[in-house]
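Entry type: protein chain
Record version: 2
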Amino acid sequence: MTSCKLSGEDAVAFDAPLLLYDGECPFCSFYVAKSEFETRIGKPLRLVDGRQAPDLVERMRRDGYDLEQGMILAVEGRLYHGAAAMTALATMSTGAGRFNRVMRRVASSRARVRRLYPWLRRLRRAALLAKGAPRFRR
């Protein structure tokens, strides 16, 4: 659950803000559907279901970011993974509506998210097992 600064070719590849998530996960899909995000650079956040973008998922894995371990956010020349992505997304939340206000408050604390994120991953895995959805290739 880290963040890193993109440079050179990688920074150009992610010139538009992007959130890579698991579209088979009911929790991830709900979060993405209910959340409203604003970027400081005026470009909309592009939501990408990793199940529909296997090449991007593989590229991220080669770079050390495993979608099995958490969502991946690329914004303003930085990559955020897992708990770091959730915390970064909290700063982008519009705060409009009850769900967005609650998520913004919950995710605004890095320490709280670091404690919570492993449990969210476990819930995601249990939901995927119950659905019979496969893991991402390794």
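Comment: Residues 6-12 have pLDDT under 50 and may be disordered.
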